[in-house]
Amino acid sequence: MRRRDLLKGAAAIAAAPLVNGPLARIAPSRRGDVVDGARVNEWLSRFDAIGRTPTGINRVAYSEFDLAGRAFAIERIRESGFTPRIDAAGNILARLEGRESLPPILIGSHVDSVTDGGNFDGPVGSFGALEVARTLRETNARLRHPVEVVIWANEEGGTIGSKLAVGDTGTLDLDAMARSGRTHRQGIALVGGDLSKLATAERAKGSVHCYLELHIEQGGNLEKAGRTIGVVLGIVGLRWYEVTVTGFANHAGATPMDQRHDAILAAAKFTVAVNDAIRGEAGAQVATVGRMVPTPNTRNVIAGGVELTVDLRDLDAAKVARFAERFQRIAAEIGQATGTTFAFKRSASSEPAMADARVMDIIAASADSLGLAHQRMPSGAGHDAQEVARICPMGMIFVPSVGGISHSPREYTKPEDVVHGVNVLLNAVKRVDSL
Amino acid sequence: MRRRDLLKGAAAIAAAPLVNGPLARIAPSRRGDVVDGARVNEWLSRFDAIGRTPTGINRVAYSEFDLAGRAFAIERIRESGFTPRIDAAGNILARLEGRESLPPILIGSHVDSVTDGGNFDGPVGSFGALEVARTLRETNARLRHPVEVVIWANEEGGTIGSKLAVGDTGTLDLDAMARSGRTHRQGIALVGGDLSKLATAERAKGSVHCYLELHIEQGGNLEKAGRTIGVVLGIVGLRWYEVTVTGFANHAGATPMDQRHDAILAAAKFTVAVNDAIRGEAGAQVATVGRMVPTPNTRNVIAGGVELTVDLRDLDAAKVARFAERFQRIAAEIGQATGTTFAFKRSASSEPAMADARVMDIIAASADSLGLAHQRMPSGAGHDAQEVARICPMGMIFVPSVGGISHSPREYTKPEDVVHGVNVLLNAVKRVDSL
């Protein structure tokens, strides 16, 4: 149903004369102030057919559907008048030359998806960036800086393409199995990369003028606030823990309540306590127990063990560290009270990546000039922008996710909001050219 | 290690002159006051080798190991001077005739096991009953009533053999798949039963004088109280619920804490609340959340759903019903507070089965006459005795489980406690003969 809505919405926009109604204000001409909104929405509607399964979009990196999605993007780059290029890390690039010999303004996102995801997480920013470059080319708006469109490889599997492009290979195991069932090494070769020439894909600090990424919010803050544009303050830092709760399996009927070492009960108490702690303090910090695997997981046996995960995020690294420590104290107390033990293993962590203050001001000014209500907000999700922020000033533009839903077949962003976002990106690119 | 302990313990008892030490009091002669404790423990040690795997005893009903266990038992019946018989339901029987034409005293248990279980749950009562009949025969202690030893088929799969023997076929689906991968119908034929002649195995109300079952406690109450014999008050009634918690899956990073519909959090709150409720009232009632299966069960996605189970038991049927209702009220409140919904499906229920008051007195008197400390207690676990209680007076004798552990490779009962239990059974059989 959503998909039909989307197609109908896109068709309506494509067919609209763009002189009346809500889009009239932002698409008065092809003088280069605004993009061709119908075109970018049409690309998105056509892209929706690639990797669409009964359970959602499945363009998992290095899979056949990912290859098909990349081929579609490469075709759109070609028909937009650019020469597509694949760097050694497997990232897809298109370049519009500038008037001066300066580092490029880099804009883009990704086209791979999670398992059973939606069509907006990544593609909006990827096709939006291409539309911006095409509009600049078609309207002969030659900037001082070159503009490079980038479609990063394997964002959902751990921002692999952008990590490699900024020279971060230390934390990556390229022989680890990706969700496609192929290793990163195999996958990168498959999509046209060449790890033996990885140095050619690496961008040194200062070699990029600025990175801008348009993305769907993936949360419900903009919708709730009735605003169209999110000016991203930064991407939250993250810690992932694998927590093992060890109790003792015993007979559910014959074991008195005061003689149990119930690992499910201990895991439940921990889950509730983590939630209470994270909500007990003002701020945008989040913590999630998203996975829980008890043993033996049988109705008439008290659980002897539980494996669970904690996902903890905030824009303030010190706050993340403080909560991580607090969760471990809470676990020790619950272990004591329930006759169980908790063991923590940190399986991933990333530092917060802050957006550049001048770039945030430029995005806000761009939204203002288009008459779009905006607000500053953290990104709770990870993005390629967090990697690129290590080598250049970074900014991100969010557009609303209907119902705050993402990583779901029900993920949806209204066609008019897609157009608003792409126009802010175009406007911001022009403004950062003067920086 | 446990197994070696057991073998050592059994060997020590077998080798002991039985005139000194702790057993001297209860085994002064072969005049028929006490059983041959060394023999029953030797049977148990030898039986431990059948179905023993690295993860525990696996004599799952209708499996090859179950067949081997039954063959071992049949061989012991033969060598004890009885003619083994298999009834149409697959139960193994041995009969010692009485002086009068009266209904038999039925004694026994089962030899099948759970997956990855121990060697004591079932075999103690089965070989104990055979040892009692053999002692009666060897000492020419002919009772008024016949004594029948029974080894019930497939106790762990739902007291199948005893259910069929008391004519309860209404609640049974004989074509359902048992844990062995065979249907009950196939399994019963395999072990020598004949469902076309099921009526021949059925015992009418009043056709059995009394049923006595010796069993390990499977809990830690006796050990904790320092008592050797449990006089079972009855077998608790049980309700099983399958509970479906429905929330909404969303991004663990991008979804603010106050906009979540987290099914794992709701399930955790419910688990804690069930525990608080059941422990908040005096009594021996137990409730267990033993199974929890979240969806999608991924570290960085808020869970959209959880399937969990509740196992609720008490000797008082009204109390069981009251708690069942209370759990559903608690769930509704938690659903309200967390933006989730709870749906309950009752997947099984059984009424409490009470032991006969005179039989309980007889078991207590038997323990007293042997100088064994005892206490009355409910059985939290289900047993064949709960089925047989429908057709005749029933009593159960418990012996301690070390550490309260059962349904585990670490299940263990000390050889001396096995002997104490079998002696109480012998003594009680003689006393019920006068009823």
Could you explain how this protein is built, in words?
Two copies of one chain form a homodimer. The first copy, chain A, is α+β, with helices and mostly antiparallel strands and 435 residues long. The first copy, chain A, folds into two domains: 2-235 and 352-432, 3-Layer(aba) Sandwich (Aminopeptidase); 237-350, Alpha-Beta Plaits (2-Layer Sandwich), CATH 3.30.70.360. Helices cover 34% and strands 21% of the residues of chain A. The first copy, chain A, has helices at 2-15, 37-47, 64-79, 123-138, 160-165, 184-190, 221-225, 263-279, 317-338, 357-369, 384-388, 415-432; strands at residues 52-53, 56-57, 85-86, 92-96, 105-110, 147-152, 210-216, 229-235, 237-246, 250-251, 286-288, 292-295, 301-302, 305-314, 341-350, 353-354, 374-379, 394-399. In chain A, the strands form four sheets. In chain A, strands 3, 4, 5, 6, 7, 8, 16, 17 and 18 form a nine-stranded mixed sheet that branches. In chain A, strands 9, 11, 12, 14 and 15 form a five-stranded antiparallel sheet that branches. A two-stranded antiparallel ribbon of chain A has the order 1-2. In chain A, helix 8 (263-279) packs antiparallel against helix 9 and helix 10 crosses helix 12. Chain A is elongated.
